[in-house]
Amino acid sequence: MTLALVSKRYQATDELDAIEQCFAKGWSEGLPVVPPTEPRVRAMLEAAALEPQRQVGFIRDRAVSVTAEKVAINAVMAGCRPEYMPVVVAAVEAICDARFSYHGPSTSTGGAGMLLIVSGPIARELDVNCGDNLFGPGWRSNLTIGRAVRLVMRNVCGSIPGLLDRGTLGHPGKVSYVIAENETESPWAPLHVERGFRPEQSVVTVMAAESPHQVYNQLSSTAEGVLTTLADAMRISGNVMGQPHYCVVVAGEHMRTIAADGWDKKRIRHYLWEHTRNSHAHLKRTHRMSGALEAGDEAKQRALLASPDDILVVAAGGRAGSFSCFIPGWSSAKSSQAVSKEVRR
Amino acid sequence: MIEFLDPTTEAATQTIAYAPRPTALAGKRVALVDNTKYNSDRLLAKIGDILKTEYGVAEWQMYRKHNASVPAHAEIIAAIEKTADVMVAGIGD
């Protein structure tokens, strides 16, 4: 067992000089970083009970080994508190999982962000925001955990914008994209329980994702009404022909409306799956499906998702306001699957 | 004075053995690897035809990956080893 830190060391006159050196060396995504000194890095490793050279993940297609030491250094730079480290580690394990297929979503012109959904007790312990301004500013854990993952991608995996990260447009979630589920107020089984974990486990689910699309329905007081609007907005979105994952975030008022009608997450998924199909005729007329229009194309339907189970339903967002959102996954669920990992402490 | 640590990982070095390149294409069997993106099969077929008419290759055969985001799977690599002298692979968007 070795507890030595093997990373190369640099000297700076003070913190500001170190920050500027990190910029100059290309180690930042554009914001100042916390200089990763040895005591700070060791505090990260201790919080996750990890030896420095322990391999957190291995990206096969790129032959990249991600060690705990490098994850800890990048977590310090991102501004994480040490207690966030186990969540960062679980997220890095998830993006390195073969089912996630890191090389695709990290390099693609499709410009995916790494959406992290934290569920279970640790979300509340670390104050990971699940309420107002869900995707917005204001919470250190949300902003720095996602930033740490992105810095690992940049500094360890080589996913540098313009080089190996060739996103055509990208989106703001590529800086940080972390939410938690509002398990306290949700009437439904939490995401991690639906994905096979016990309620008392803490879990991070990662999905390669486009940006959130907000959907308004301030009119309907029924589950079917709200979800009809949501399905209508979803139907032509994302990689329409690819059959990706979707994450659907149901916020406070819609959550209560849907739950009042007795609908659970499974019913939500099935309803959305059934009501987001497109006719072959429409897909051809709008140049999404190749080929000439044929007899029967009006009746022939293509599902937006391969399976209702490819929709991740999350109860989160502010209590007030009749909004929800959907997030198209990158490419196709076949190319990159959402992956859940337990947070170990 | 403060000391800080390098967050990057040096690329692991490895030696890759390249197959010897043919000096001419005449009479060679060509494998075309379709990455499954729109029209990639049509583009590759066009390339295959040009290789036949202009470079005298004997034949071409198309192989299809599972999807664009993964490396070619073992079965098609094994088939290409058996059936082709030259391969054309790439990624298109």
Termini gap of chain A: 19 Å
Quaternary organization: heterodimer
Helical proportion of chain A, percent range: 25-40%
- How would the global form of chain B be characterised? elongated
Count the helices of chain A. How many? 12
Please tell me the overall pLDDT of chain A: 97
Assess the beta-strand content of chain B as a share of residues.
15-25%
| Beta-strand content of chain A | 15-25%
**Helicity range of the residues of chain B?**
25-40%
Order of helices and strands of chain B: EEHEHE
Number of helices of chain B: 2
The N- and C-terminal alpha carbons of chain B lie at a distance of 50 Å
- Which structural category fits the helices and strands of chain B? alpha/beta
Total beta-strand segments of chain B? 4
Radius of gyration based on Cα positions of chain B: 19 Å
Rg of chain A, alpha carbons? 21 Å
Low-confidence stretches of chain B: none
Strand arrangement in the largest pleated sheet of chain A:
5-4-6-13
How is this structure best described in words?
The complex is a heterodimer of chains A (345) and B (93). Chain A is α+β, with helices and mostly antiparallel strands. Chain A is built from 12 helices and 13 strands. Chain A has helices spanning 15-24, 38-47, 68-78, 85-96, 103-107, 121-125, 140-155, 191-194, 223-234, 252-260, 265-274, 280-285, and strands at 9-12, 55-59, 64-67, 113-119, 178-180, 203-209, 213-216, 246-250, 278-279, 301-302, 311-315, 323-328, 339-342. In chain A, the strands form 4 sheets. A 4-stranded mixed beta sheet of chain A has the order 5-4-6-13. In chain A, strands 7-12-8-11 form a 4-stranded mixed beta sheet. In chain A, strand 2 (55-59) and strand 3 form a beta hairpin. Chain A is globular and about 70 Å long. The two termini of chain A are 19 Å apart. The relative contact order of chain A is 0.15. Chain B has 93 residues and is of the alpha/beta class. Chain B has a domain at 25-66 and 84-93. Chain B is built from 2 helices and 4 strands; from the N terminus they run ββαβαβ. In chain B, strands 3-2-4 form a 3-stranded parallel beta sheet, sandwiched between helices. The termini of chain B are far apart. The model of chain B has no long low-confidence stretch (mean pLDDT 90).
